[in-house]
Automatic annotation (TrEMBL):
Protein's organism: Prochlorothrix hollandica PCC 9006 = CALU 1027
Pfam families: Uma2 (PF05685)
Ranges for domain Putative restriction endonuclease: 35-178
SUPFAM superfamilies per record: Restriction endonuclease-like
Gene3D superfamilies from the UniProt entry: tt1808, chain A (3.90.1570.10)
Protein name: Putative restriction endonuclease domain-containing protein
């Protein structure tokens, strides 16, 4: 018997961040039926975009990166004295657009006063100011198009190596070097934080806070959103 070996065998592959299942040709009602039938999804996240449903099951490398990015954002918000409402992976439904998403994390910062202390209704409330998506493996959903349609002003996407930051302009996302919310922070700051956290998360957070506090003594670098 002859065994054919794939060229990929024997190579060190990168970490698998997610497992995904995709369904096509679903109506909004069919999507809602599936959503209601999966009350205990053990962290699975559903994204629906005009007939396409993707179910994502995050794995360790995904969750590790995501939780650290959450810490990174909370540190910046806290040290700058900003307001914050964290939405986590709350389902963002827009039946009128035939779209729905459960992002990795969503935040109200600039618009926090408009939604503080109550449940958010996207029919009348603004969308989250910042959404974070970690996609280490490829996704069948065009998330830039989806979140642009939802009107999300800022989108961070991390693929396990690089962070892409997008700012919404005239209904389309523009790739930018720095966050509109934290314009004085370079991407390298996040990369350094993630690398340090591989060794010790507490020390990495302490170093990040010290960096932000030192930067606060240089007012010309700090621009409030």
């Amino acid at each position: 018997m002859v065994t054919t070996i794939s060229p990929l065998q024997g190579l060190a592959l990168g970490p698998i961040g997610e497992q995904r299942v995709c369904f096509r040709g679903l109506t909004w009602d069919a999507y809602q039926q599936i959503f209601q039938a999966l009350p205990h999804r053990r962290g699975a996240r559903l994204t629906y975009d005009r007939g396409t449903l993707e179910i994502t099951m995050p794995l360790e490398s995904h969750e590790f990166s995501l939780r650290l990015i959450e810490v990174f954002i909370r540190c910046l918000v806290f040290e700058l004295g900003l307001k914050l409402k964290t939405m986590g992976s709350t389902t963002l439904n827009r039946q009128d657009l035939d779209r729905s998403s459960e992002p990795d994390c969503a935040y109200y910062i600039q618009n926090q006063p408009k939604v503080a202390g109550r449940r958010v209704d996207l029919a009348t409330d603004p969308p989250p100011d910042l959404i974070v998506e970690v996609d280490i493996t490829s996704t069948d959903i065009d998330k830039n198009c989806l979140y642009a349609a939802l009107g999300v002003p800022e989108l961070w996407r991390y693929n396990g190596r690089e962070l892409s930051i997008y700012r919404l302009e005239n209904g389309l996302y523009q790739n930018c070097d720095r966050s509109p919310t934290f314009p004085w922070i370079e991407k390298q700051c996040l990369y350094d934080f993630l690398a340090e956290a591989e060794q010790d998360e507490i020390e990495a957070e302490q170093n990040l806070r010290e960096f932000v506090q030192q930067s606060l003594h240089q007012p010309d670098q700090i621009q409030q959103p």
